[in-house]
Description:
This protein is 47% helix and 19% strand. By secondary structure, the chain is α/β, with parallel strands linked by helices. The protein has a domain at 5-32 and 95-212: 3-Layer(aba) Sandwich (Rossmann fold), CATH 3.40.50.300. The strands form two sheets. It has a five-stranded parallel beta sheet with strand order 2-7-1-8-9, with helices on both faces. The chain has a four-stranded mixed beta sheet with strand order 4-3-6-5. The chain is elongated, with a radius of gyration of 21 Å.
Amino acid sequence: MRPFPVILSAPSGAGKTTIAKKLLERRSDLGYSVSCTTRDRRPGEVDGRDYNFLTVDQFLAERDAGGFAEWAQVHGHYYGTLRREVQRVLDSGRHCLMDIDVQGARQFAGAFPDTVLVFILPPSGEVLLRRLNGRGSENRERLLVRLHNALAEIGDVARYHYVVVNDELELAIERVSSVIDAEAVRHDRVHALEEQVGALIAQLEQEINGIQRGE
Ligand code: ADP
Ligand code: 5GP
């Protein structure tokens, strides 16, 4: 089976980073494409693990050199997915998990049509606000920007193949994991399916002939 890209999108605070981290801990068939961003590092975030933290000049130079499979401005900062990161993960035989906003997801799926698009929804507006506040990473102004963007992002949900409500974290992780399992056995992803089926038919025909000859 060919490994494929999996994109998680969600309004900020819905829990996609938490879900992605847990899936990566639990599944050895997944790898993470580390994005680039020009936003400030949050406490606990590590450069090169959570994001490649770039200056605006560095980001624009990478963009102009064609290094990004997609890029977008989100909440007033640049974010982008490096082509070489995606290729590194896929070449290692793992599905490439990404956390990308709705504009970027659309661009990326245009370039990589076998991408699986999963939208994570919060169970309610109240819960989303509580989670964003609980994370403690946004001041009032930045919080409002993220909430306004949430309204636009949720409107894009119908472009996605799957929708998972992140109410109970464990259930949400399991649902996304099930999506990946199901996608892996889709007939167009099964390696050399025609040859496999052809060989099976030939074997069965032999068996039938044997029975008919009374062997
Ligand atoms: P996102 O990456 O979508 O912006 P995060 O993964 O950073 O969101 O989650 C936002 C906050 O909500 C974090 O503090 C996280 O621990 C918390 N959180 C995520 N999922 C759940 C859940 N199912 N129940 C309760 N808290 C959650
Ligand atoms: P955060 O700043 O909370 O980590 O992420 C903010 C938003 O940027 C989220 O919607 C997240 O999905 C998005 N994002 C993260 N990495 C990328 C990326 O590489 N490309 C795009 N287009 N969006 C990204």
